[in-house]
Amino acid sequence: MKSTKSTQFSKKLITTRKINNLVKKALADTPDWKPAKGYKYLKDIEEGSLFETSTGMRGVYLNSTPTSARVIITSCNSMEEDKSYYLGKQNIATTTEVKNGNHERNIKTL
Q: Does 1 score more than 60 pLDDT?
Protein backbone atom coordinates (compact mmCIF):
# COMPACT_ATOMS: atom_id res chain seq x y z
CA MET A 1 0.00 0.00 0.00
CA LYS A 2 1.32 3.42 -0.94
CA SER A 3 1.76 6.00 1.68
CA THR A 4 -0.30 9.15 1.25
CA LYS A 5 2.55 11.25 2.49
CA SER A 6 4.61 10.81 -0.70
CA THR A 7 1.70 11.69 -3.00
CA GLN A 8 0.79 14.91 -1.23
CA PHE A 9 2.13 18.20 -2.55
CA SER A 10 3.04 21.12 -0.43
CA LYS A 11 1.04 24.23 -1.25
CA LYS A 12 2.98 27.47 -1.37
CA LEU A 13 1.28 30.78 -1.17
CA ILE A 14 2.05 32.89 -4.21
CA THR A 15 1.72 36.58 -3.53
CA THR A 16 0.71 39.29 -5.95
CA ARG A 17 4.23 40.68 -5.77
CA LYS A 18 5.72 37.37 -6.96
CA ILE A 19 3.23 37.20 -9.81
CA ASN A 20 4.02 40.76 -10.90
CA ASN A 21 7.76 40.04 -10.81
CA LEU A 22 7.29 36.91 -12.93
CA VAL A 23 5.18 38.82 -15.46
CA LYS A 24 7.75 41.63 -15.73
CA LYS A 25 10.56 39.12 -16.22
CA ALA A 26 8.62 37.22 -18.89
CA LEU A 27 7.88 40.42 -20.80
CA ALA A 28 11.48 41.62 -20.56
CA ASP A 29 13.01 38.31 -21.68
CA THR A 30 11.60 38.33 -25.21
CA PRO A 31 13.85 37.06 -27.98
CA ASP A 32 15.20 39.38 -30.66
CA TRP A 33 13.70 37.98 -33.86
CA LYS A 34 15.61 38.48 -37.09
CA PRO A 35 14.65 37.57 -40.65
CA ALA A 36 16.36 34.72 -42.49
CA LYS A 37 19.64 35.37 -44.28
CA GLY A 38 19.08 37.39 -47.45
CA TYR A 39 15.61 38.56 -46.38
CA LYS A 40 14.20 41.65 -44.68
CA TYR A 41 10.99 42.25 -42.83
CA LEU A 42 8.35 44.01 -44.90
CA LYS A 43 8.28 46.87 -42.39
CA ASP A 44 11.99 47.55 -43.04
CA ILE A 45 11.76 48.28 -46.78
CA GLU A 46 10.82 51.63 -48.29
CA GLU A 47 7.27 52.48 -49.33
CA GLY A 48 6.75 51.89 -53.04
CA SER A 49 9.40 49.15 -53.16
CA LEU A 50 8.95 45.91 -55.02
CA PHE A 51 9.29 42.69 -53.02
CA GLU A 52 9.20 38.92 -53.35
CA THR A 53 8.42 36.39 -50.60
CA SER A 54 9.98 32.95 -50.22
CA THR A 55 6.82 31.39 -51.69
CA GLY A 56 7.19 33.41 -54.89
CA MET A 57 4.50 36.02 -54.18
CA ARG A 58 5.50 39.37 -55.67
CA GLY A 59 4.10 42.80 -55.04
CA VAL A 60 4.51 46.47 -54.19
CA TYR A 61 4.70 47.72 -50.60
CA LEU A 62 2.38 50.71 -50.05
CA ASN A 63 2.38 51.56 -46.31
CA SER A 64 2.01 49.97 -42.89
CA THR A 65 0.57 50.19 -39.41
CA PRO A 66 2.43 48.71 -36.41
CA THR A 67 1.06 45.22 -37.18
CA SER A 68 -0.05 45.06 -40.82
CA ALA A 69 1.22 46.24 -44.17
CA ARG A 70 -0.87 47.35 -47.15
CA VAL A 71 0.50 45.83 -50.36
CA ILE A 72 -0.53 45.24 -53.96
CA ILE A 73 0.09 41.62 -54.94
CA THR A 74 1.06 41.44 -58.62
CA SER A 75 1.80 37.72 -59.00
CA CYS A 76 1.60 34.59 -56.89
CA ASN A 77 2.17 30.85 -57.14
CA SER A 78 -1.28 29.43 -56.61
CA MET A 79 -3.93 27.55 -58.50
CA GLU A 80 -5.59 29.48 -61.30
CA GLU A 81 -8.98 29.64 -59.56
CA ASP A 82 -7.38 31.05 -56.38
CA LYS A 83 -5.40 33.84 -58.06
CA SER A 84 -8.33 36.23 -58.11
CA TYR A 85 -8.39 36.08 -54.30
CA TYR A 86 -4.68 36.79 -53.82
CA LEU A 87 -4.04 39.38 -56.53
CA GLY A 88 -4.70 43.06 -55.84
CA LYS A 89 -4.63 45.06 -52.60
CA GLN A 90 -4.05 42.97 -49.49
CA ASN A 91 -3.10 43.42 -45.83
CA ILE A 92 -0.27 41.15 -44.68
CA ALA A 93 1.93 41.05 -41.57
CA THR A 94 4.77 43.56 -41.30
CA THR A 95 7.01 40.71 -40.15
CA THR A 96 6.64 38.89 -43.47
CA GLU A 97 10.11 38.00 -44.74
CA VAL A 98 10.72 39.47 -48.20
CA LYS A 99 13.52 39.99 -50.68
CA ASN A 100 13.69 43.60 -51.68
CA GLY A 101 14.55 43.92 -55.32
CA ASN A 102 13.74 45.03 -58.81
CA HIS A 103 11.26 42.57 -60.30
CA GLU A 104 9.84 44.91 -62.95
CA ARG A 105 10.36 42.42 -65.75
CA ASN A 106 8.12 39.92 -63.93
CA ILE A 107 5.31 42.26 -62.88
CA LYS A 108 2.15 42.08 -64.91
CA THR A 109 0.27 45.33 -65.33
CA LEU A 110 -2.96 45.46 -63.42
A: no
